[in-house]
Task: inverse folding
């Protein structure tokens, strides 16, 4: 099927773009537009041409299905199409509704006239992929809406409604009601009035005193750019619309800068993450049309830290929640915390009274399992103890209605075992939320051996509904994220044994871009959690070596922020991590006991050892099939562990460093530390041998 249709309404040709879902500018669609224009020009009866999309989108820009394929660049490419449109001898009118973004907007900017629904969403979001608009957007937009408005749109990349542009010539008319009818009426005027073709390229950007403005803008943009080069290049390109002698000279500068950005690791990282996010929702053996179960009511067991946050996700999405606790007192406390959380959001002006009432109205509490009889999804967030989980799941098996999905929020326990406590293991799944559960975007969906495909399809769908990034993990100790972070923390511990300070390790990794170093993270999450895990591991996998320093801290009651001291000291009501001489002494004593003479550890070594630990364990997770693809791991680290977006996640970072170099370093660490963990994962060795990459 062609991606465009061509029709005549009187003396107006209507080219309709039809490439669902958002009229991505695929090769087929680009060819269709060019062919439609040629047909209209050749037909002596045609006096004007309308280019229109669907209700959902005029065009959302490049077709992401063509990313990385030769089709994306094949002629007619977008710059060529815009040139053909702009040079068309008959008036071309873009009729814009829904999304008009990126290349879609650049296409619209090349037409002679534009009409739009006031609600149409206008954006040049290329900066979010570390790029700039590369089909004339940086040159045409300032000409038509002015330099400042164009710069705002291009540097931020956020969508704005067409109505915002009412006072500019961007849209000749904003149409209330039917878009095509409005566009046809507008075309009739253009024809009747014999309006001259208006090419944006022929307009001049008039900006007196532009040097001062560009200097001011440069300081502003530097302030928001962070580690990304794209925002400043966007400014440079927009600046060229003022300073270039001709439009074509400006276009050349735009293309040069676009090419430079394409080659940056930051843009590669952002493009990787963009695609990774779309890939996560796909489960290889669960087709997209798998029927899903209806989730109209949710039950949550445990109104503690996690249960409360989990409940809020569903309330926010308009789904009723019943929370169950063992005792009324605990229930009241948990429900009170949810109320307080919403109240504080309301005080900040981020929630209306109406929304507050609506959400609280959807929440009920109980101490009686009978109230779960009509729940479609029940999530337990009780103590992390297999005995307690057993009790809960046996009870759920008795009372839940047939087909209800039974989920566990366990962080480390064996989901298959949990499922075996019921007679319906096919209905059991892990939903591993991250703390604070109402804030953190990541949701690990743990697929048990027997979890049914429609259960997987349903929870992935519900994950989207509650605005999470849902990533599927197989069953293993710690699932994807915590299994990797375990080794990251272990290595950080050894670095301190050898001579680094916790603050140096934290700072080095924060400079690399991690939102928080491992010791500050431990203090925030509670060092006792890791302590409990290490105690269990000491029995289950005694061969894995650990520094004993973290245990010493816990033995001294230094659990972190919640006890006012951990690796750092905390003042009441303040999360700032302060140095503590007591910890320095504990470290000193420990080194003496082990007979270690502390050495100077470089920041580079800290970053390499900690990040390569993530990489090695991540590669094992991919090889074992615990993660379906390497990019899923990058999603987990971006959304759950504060990995810097400009590095694209540990797996892409490994590829950027070069797997060969990474493996060589790992072998060096293995020889130096004697830790068998450092043997490069077999997958890494295989990929090096075949010249391939993880991502
Ligand atoms: P928590 O101690 O804050 O809350 C547990 C709640 O469960 C308590 O309110 C307790 O009264 C209630 N409870 C215990 N047994 C119960 C039972 N039989 N029936 C009903 N209620 C019962 O613990 P939490 O931090 O919310 O952790 C809960 C679960 O979430 C654990 O499995 C934990 O591993 C997991 N988890 C925790 C985090 C985290 O950062 N805290 C992150 C991800 C997952």
Result:
């Amino acid at each position: 099927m062609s991606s465009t249709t061509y029709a005549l309404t009187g003396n107006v040709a209507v080219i309709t773009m039809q490439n669902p879902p958002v009229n991505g500018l695929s090769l087929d669609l680009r060819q269709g537009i060019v062919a439609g224009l040629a047909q209209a020009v050749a037909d002596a009866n045609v006096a004007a041409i309308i280019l229109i999309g669907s209700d959902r989108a005029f065009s959302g820009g490049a077709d992401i299905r063509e990313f990385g394929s030769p089709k994306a660049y094949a002629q007619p490419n977008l710059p060529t199409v815009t040139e053909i449109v702009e040079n068309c001898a008959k008036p071309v009118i873009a009729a814009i509704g829904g999304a008009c973004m990126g290349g879609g907007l650049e296409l619209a900017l090349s037409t002679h006239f534009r009409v739009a629904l006031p609600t149409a969403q206008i954006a040049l979001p290329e900066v979010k992929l570390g790029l700039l608009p590369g089909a004339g957007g940086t040159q045409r937009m300032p000409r038509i809406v002015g330099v400042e408005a164009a710069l705002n749109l291009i540097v931020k990349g956020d969508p704005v409604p067409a109505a915002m542009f009412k006072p500019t010539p961007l849209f000749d008319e904003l149409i209330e009601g039917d878009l095509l009818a409005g566009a046809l009426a507008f075309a009739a005027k253009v024809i009747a009035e014999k309006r001259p073709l208006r090419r944006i390229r022929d307009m001049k950007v008039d900006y007196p005193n532009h040097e001062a403005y560009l200097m001011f803008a440069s300081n502003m943009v530097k302030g928001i750019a962070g580690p990304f080069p794209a925002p400043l290049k966007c400014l440079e390109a927009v600046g060229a619309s003022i300073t270039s002698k001709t439009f074509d000279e400006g276009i050349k500068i735009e293309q040069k800068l676009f090419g430079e950005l394409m080659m940056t690791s930051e843009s590669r990282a952002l493009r990787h993450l963009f695609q990774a996010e779309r890939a996560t929702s796909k489960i290889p053996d669960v087709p997209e049309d798998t029927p899903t179960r209806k989730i109209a009511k949710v039950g949550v067991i445990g109104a503690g830290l996690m249960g409360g946050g989990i409940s809020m996700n569903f309330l926010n999405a308009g789904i009723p929640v019943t929370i169950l606790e063992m005792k009324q007192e605990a229930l009241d406390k948990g429900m009170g915390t949810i109320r307080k959380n919403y109240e504080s959001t309301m005080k900040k002006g981020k929630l209306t009274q109406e929304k507050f009432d609506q959400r609280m109205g959807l929440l009920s509490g109980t101490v009686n399992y009978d109230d779960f009889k009509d729940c479609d999804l029940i999530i337990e967030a009780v103590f992390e103890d297999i005995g307690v989980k057993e009790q809960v799941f046996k009870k759920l098996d008795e009372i839940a209605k047939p087909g209800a999905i039974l989920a566990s929020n366990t962080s480390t326990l064996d989901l298959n075992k949990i499922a075996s406590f019921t007679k319906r293991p096919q209905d059991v799944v892990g939903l591993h939320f991250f703390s604070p559960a109402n804030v953190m975007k990541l949701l690990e969906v743990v697929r048990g051996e027997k979890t049914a495909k429609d259960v997987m399809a349903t929870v992935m769908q519900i994950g989207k509904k509650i605005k999470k990034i849902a990533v599927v993990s197989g069953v293993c100790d710690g699932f994807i994220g915590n299994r990797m972070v375990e080794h990251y923390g272990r290595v950080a511990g050894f670095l301190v044994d050898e001579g680094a300070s916790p603050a140096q390790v934290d700072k080095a990794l924060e400079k690399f871009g991690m939102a928080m170093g491992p010791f500050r993270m431990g203090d925030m999450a509670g060092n006792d959690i890791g302590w409990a895990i290490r105690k269990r591991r000491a029995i289950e996998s005694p061969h894995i070596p650990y520094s004993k320093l973290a245990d010493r801290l816990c033995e001294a009651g230094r659990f972190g922020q919640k006890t006012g001291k951990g690796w750092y000291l905390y003042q009441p009501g303040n999360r700032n991590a302060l140095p503590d001489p007591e910890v320095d002494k504990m470290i000193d004593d420990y080194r003496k006991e082990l007979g270690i003479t502390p050495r100077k550890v470089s920041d580079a070594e800290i970053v390499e050892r900690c990040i390569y630990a993530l990489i090695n364990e991540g590669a094992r997770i991919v090889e074992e099939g615990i993660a379906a693809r390497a990019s899923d791991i990058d999603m987990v680290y971006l959304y759950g562990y504060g990995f810097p977006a400009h590095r694209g996640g540990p797996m892409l970072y490994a590829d950027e460093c070069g797997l060969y170099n990474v493996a060589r370093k790992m072998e060096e660490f293995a020889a130096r530390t004697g830790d068998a963990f450092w043997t490069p994962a077999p997958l890494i060795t295989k990929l090096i041998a075949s010249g391939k990459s993880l991502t």
User: Anything to note?
Assistant: Residues 301-307, 324-326, 330, 381-384, 388, 391-392, 409-411, 433-435, 525 surround nicotinamide-adenine-dinucleotide (CB under 6 Å).
